[in-house]
Automatic annotation (TrEMBL):
InterPro entries: DgoD-like, Enolase-like_C_sf, Enolase-like_N, Enolase_C-like, Mandel_Rmase/mucon_lact_enz_CS, Mandelate_racemase_C, Mandelate_racemase_N_dom
Name by which UniProt lists this protein: Mandelate racemase/muconate lactonizing enzyme family protein
Gene3D superfamilies reported for this sequence: Enolase-like C-terminal domain, Enolase-like, N-terminal domain
Record lineage: Archaea, Methanobacteriati, Methanobacteriota, Stenosarchaea group, Halobacteria
Domain Mandelate racemase/muconate lactonizing enzyme C-terminal, chain residue ranges per copy: 152-244
């Protein structure tokens, strides 16, 4: 099996006037994705997603990757990242940059999808001899909205849908943080897992004041309380609080993730399977993290393709140092609950996270069937 074509497909869905939402460092009025369609000489198609502004990363894939990947075997996915870092693909000076890593990820994941289809096995079995059949989805919700949504509304909906865990956006002020966290905890109940996400909007001093004000609400982790580049800020917080710290959605490439883990400043690392470098890089990161007793939980704010890649990876996360047959810690999996037809309409059978458990597909490759009619509906030039 050899690759005969690589096609990036930029997608967009405008949310409409007054419907922008997001976190404390910015909101979006458009949901986007860049799919990567890789076709083999026997007609088999592999899919990946590059998590970056669609037209820009699509151009990058066409310029840097398409010709270099045509003729490759899907098994070459294992070393594709090395070719980018050394400059064989894209040039030496650009391999570590965010857009290049996103492009690499989209192509690399598509090659793994081809590989799984060629062998008749899901990607999770190729990544790990043993894997989980299901994960525990948590509702990523209670966003900062342009229309001033009552924070209780999305949390009540998450509970109605059967979620037993949730992550919410905070980081505008200590008073607002307390209000939003208290609201979420009261609606979720005492036994549910609750995470908070600052999106890096505070200094370490401001974050510490906020964390001390909300830690009574029994938080599973605190995500990006300071900007991703503020390693000293993470270190100050790690030394001052008992609540686990999480980061990684704004990191990309093996070197940034290696630094994040080895600096010993976070308890949970969160690669995105649309820009972390691909499955081989994510597998390396999982080994690195668990070797250093750091948990790994993917960040997921992608289309259905990136979501499918993330769940295949999440299913392989080891429980070390706990024995796999005795671990009681759930594999928490982020599931965005905001408006996004690129997540809900691109698959013949969309993922259903309701009910407190999410099954991991066991069909070959990513385990999904793309509705190409829907893809064309959201495609942009």
């Amino acid at each position: 099996m050899r690759v005969v074509s690589v096609e990036p497909i930029p997608l967009e869905h405008p949310l409409g006037s007054g419907r922008a939402f997001g976190g404390t460092r910015g909101v979006t009025d458009t949901r986007t994705a860049t799919l990567v369609k890789v076709t083999a000489d026997d007609g088999t198609v592999g899919w990946g997603e590059a998590f970056a502004p669609p037209r820009t990363v699509a151009t990058l894939i066409e310029e840097f990757f398409a010709d270099a990947v045509v003729g490759l075997d899907p098994w070459d996915a294992e070393t594709l990242a090395d070719a980018v870092y050394t400059g064989e693909i894209g040039g030496y000076h650009f391999g570590r940059q965010a857009f290049t890593q996103a492009a690499l990820t989209g192509v690399e994941v598509a090659l793994w999808d081809l590989r799984g289809k060629a062998l008749g096995k899901p990607v999770r079995e190729l990544l790990s001899g043993q894997s989980h059949d299901a994960v525990t989805p948590y509702a990523s919700t209670m966003y900062i909205t342009e229309w001033g949504q009552d924070p209780a509304e999305p949390m009540e909906r998450a509970v109605e849908e059967g979620f037993t865990a949730a992550k919410i956006k905070i980081g505008r002020s200590v008073e607002d943080d307390v209000h939003r966290v208290r609201t979420a905890r009261e609606i979720l109940g005492d036994d549910a897992r609750l995470m908070v996400d600052y999106n890096g909007n505070y200094t370490a001093t401001d974050a510490l004041e906020s964390i001390r004000a909300i830690e009574e609400f029994d938080l599973t982790w605190i995500e990006e309380p300071v900007p991703p580049e503020d390693v000293d800020g993470y270190r100050r917080l790690r030394d001052a609080i008992d609540v686990p710290l999480a980061a990684g959605e704004a990191h990309h490439g093996r070197f940034e993730f290696t630094d994040l883990v080895r600096e010993n400043v976070v308890d949970v690392v969160q690669p995105n399977l649309g820009r972390c470098g691909g499955f081989a890089e994510a597998r390396y990161l999982a080994r690195l993290a668990t070797t250093n007793n750091v948990r790994i939980r993917p960040h997921v704010w992608n289309s259905a393709v990136g979501l499918a890649a993330a769940i295949q990876f999440a299913a392989t996360v080891p429980s070390y140092p706990m024995r796999s047959d005795r671990s009681t810690r759930p594999i928490l999996f982020e599931f965005d609950r905001s408006e996004n037809p690129l997540r809900n309409e691109l698959l013949a059978e969309p993922f259903d996270p309701t009910g407190g458990e999410l099954s991991v597909p066991d069909a070959p490759g990513l385990g999904i069937e793309i509705d190409e009619t829907a893809v064309e509906r959201f495609r942009v030039d």
